[in-house]
Design a protein that fits this description.
The protein is α+β, with helices and mostly antiparallel strands and 357 residues long. It is built from 10 helices and 11 strands. The longest helix is centred in the N-terminal third of the chain and has 21 residues, at 102-122. Keywords: Repeat, RNA-binding.
């Protein structure tokens, strides 16, 4: 079974690689560039794919595309977004593709992440010091990012001082050949990590072809589920391997994480089996009362997105209406079995992502 890599920085910072400011006390700028262009970075072409929530994508695009056009002008990179409701499988996130030289990519990433962080802070949706960004990488190049015995990714963590988590191969959904890299840290730490990852990927001659891959996951059809990219079949997919071993020093983001997720692997209370009635199914999950807001989202946006993407109906018990003997609310997912499984996976992913922050 493939294991996920979850690495956090040591207490003693290391000097980042060339091309970046090395001052650990330097705070992220909001009105300038954190990334400092290097001579080599202007000659090497590459690409970067990252995820952004459907709600936040609008702030990157701007009115009439003004913001993304400005970012392209400032950076020199080409910036593309997947269409509205063309999400990365298993998420409600759209894909941003940035292509150009390494310098151009890092400048564009800086502008995009500063914009997203500013929007999140305005909505009180992010910690004052750290946030997360998720990159999309082909599984075929992940070995180079990990390195022998995990040496390369450990070096990236030490140099960037960011926490870097690479999803397990067991989490790859059918029809998808990509894995997610979650980078947690300050804006400057995230950009250092992205610089190291993109520079490493640029050494792989096959990675350049990834810039031409479509942003939508097409190739087949999924009957009855609106918004799921073709070629992605949610029936029978494996749920994230939350029980994977955790590697690294000071795995701070996993404090208090494993116990709740063990329970989350089997969210059905005793005596509440998966019940099928014809082509329809229902499943019940137990979610702690203080975590319900995570799956509902601001003004109900998150749960509405999940319902729209999965095609399932989701109902949460009223406030104060707990499962007997617990402080858990009951979440009922109903609809076609594939839609229900997909919605359940998305809910669990949302809960686990929130715990990792």
């Amino acid at each position: 079974m493939s294991e996920a890599l979850d690495l956090s920085p040591m207490d003693t910072p290391e000097s980042p690689a060339s091309g970046y400011s090395t001052s650990p006390s330097r705070s992220p700028k909001r009105d300038g560039l954190i990334y400092e262009p290097s001579e080599d970075g202007s000659k090497t072409s590459s690409c970067l794919r990252l995820l952004v929530s459907n709600a936040a994508a609008g702030s990157v695009i701007g009115k009439g595309g003004a913001t993304v056009s400005d970012f392209q002008t400032q950076s020199g990179a080409r910036i593309q977004l997947s269409r509205n409701h063309e999400f990365f499988p298993g998420t409600t996130d759209r894909i941003i593709l940035v292509t150009g030289s390494i310098n151009e990519i890092l400048t564009a990433a800086n502008l995009i992440l500063q914009k997203l962080l500013s929007e999140a802070e305005d909505n009180n949706d992010v910690d004052e010091k750290t946030s997360q960004v998720r990159l999309v990488l082909p599984n075929s190049v992940c070995g180079g990012i990990i390195g022998k015995g995990g040496a390369t990714i450990k070096s990236f963590v030490e140099h960037s001082q960011a926490s870097i988590k690479l999803s397990s191969q067991d989490q790859i959904l059918p029809g998808v050949s990509d894995r997610l890299v979650t980078i947690t840290g300050t804006l400057e730490q995230q950009l250092r990590a992205i610089f190291l990852i993109v520079s490493k990927l640029a050494e792989d001659p096959n990675y350049a072809q990834y810039a031409n891959a479509p942003l939508s996951y097409t190739g087949g059809s999924v009957a009855g589920i609106q918004g799921i990219p073709g070629g992605y079949t949610p029936v029978g997919y494996g749920l994230p391997n939350y029980g994977s071993s955790v590697y690294g020093v000071n795995a701070r983001n996993n404090k208090g994480l494993m116990a709740p997720l063990v329970a989350m692997r089997s969210p059905l209370p005793i005596g509440v089996p998966l019940v099928a009635s014809g082509a329809l199914t229902s499943v019940k999950m137990a979610v702690p009362d203080d975590r319900v807001g995570v799956i509902v989202g601001r003004a109900g946006r998150t749960i509405l997105d999940i319902q729209q993407v999965s095609g399932a109906k989701i109902k949460i018990s009223d406030r104060g209406d707990f499962i007997s003997g617990t402080n858990d609310r009951q979440v009922t997912i109903s609809g076609p079995i594939d839609a229900v499984q997909h919605a359940r996976h998305m809910l669990e992913q949302r809960l686990s992502s929130d715990l990792e922050r």
